[in-house]
From TrEMBL:
Statement: the UniProt record of this protein carries the keyword Cytoplasm: no
Tagged with keyword Flavoprotein: no
GO MF term list: protein-glutamate O-methyltransferase activity
Record's keyword terms, sorted: Methyltransferase, S-adenosyl-L-methionine, Transferase
Single biological process term from Gene Ontology: methylation
Protein name (record): Chemotaxis protein methyltransferase
Reactions listed under catalytic activity: L-glutamyl-[protein] + S-adenosyl-L-methionine = [protein]-L-glutamate 5-O-methyl ester + S-adenosyl-L-homocysteine
CheR-type methyltransferase domain span: 13-285
UniProt function note: Methylation of the membrane-bound methyl-accepting chemotaxis proteins (MCP) to form gamma-glutamyl methyl ester residues in MCP.
Source organism per UniProt: Nitrosomonas supralitoralis
Amino acid sequence: MELITDIEENSESKTREYTFTQADFERVRKLIYKHAGISLSTGKQNMVYSRLARRLRATGFDNFDEYLDYLERENPEEWEAFTNALTTNLTAFFREQHHFPILEKHIVQRKNQNKIQLWCSASSTGEEPYSIAMAMIQAFKSFTPPVHILATDLDTDVLAKAQMGIYPQEKLEKISKEKLKQFFLRGKGSHAGSARVRPELRNMITFRQLNLLDEKWLIRGPFDAIFCRNVMIYFDKQTQYKILKKFVPLLASDGLLFAGHSESFQHANDLFKLREKTVYELAIR
Ligand SMILES: C[S@@+](CC[C@H](N)C(=O)[O-])C[C@H]1O[C@@H](n2cnc3c(N)ncnc32)[C@H](O)[C@@H]1O
């Protein structure tokens, strides 16, 4: 995804198939900010063009003005495609490795609890919730640990991929041989070369669409841990604060909030305090 983005950002505007004015770009920026909270920096113009040009081709419009008018005339299906096109879904198995032993330790201490509930709030194509599931299986030494993982994302395309749980070779390269053997099934036929997560992992997770920007989230806590990694970077501080405030009543009083490597919630230190590198706990328990 990063590589494609680079190519997209460096692509020459003179080779463009459609006219994309500064006003069109500003309109897109406002729409995606309002709908998904995503703050697109001014440098993203070429990326936005190349991602949305595909939507113009698919819908048959020959200019951005008409396409954006069509989008704004209450068109839920196109809103979904528009949003899916503009999200960045880079993820990896066991990304930010140091979080997993911390999670395991935290959960093992709660072993006597009937049910452990975890929320992965920007789950992308599934690598993150499946990594959490693997860590939980390891922690409980059982393929049916008393753990439920809610995995949500705004982008319905990535959720569909996550639900399939099939990954190509290059996505699996950083996973150890033991883990591959323990948690994946080798693809056959048209899936040769790829691997599918074992059904036990899949059974631990519920995938659902959820926009972190929505006023109301139809979910119920308390969660023993919330993963909100590498998504807050797309939001401004005000939006981040609103989301963090909504996490507070959903997190168990001694629960943990995991953030991405470049995310800091210092501006919300009345809500969350740093416990260790990119791991937060409630400021007031
Ligand atoms: C860069 S990925 C991070 C994935 C994963 N959490 C990780 O750290 O590897 C960001 C994800 O956030 C999702 N996202 C963006 N805006 C969102 C919103 N308003 N609500 C929920 N998810 C959102 C995107 O669709 C994307 O899958």
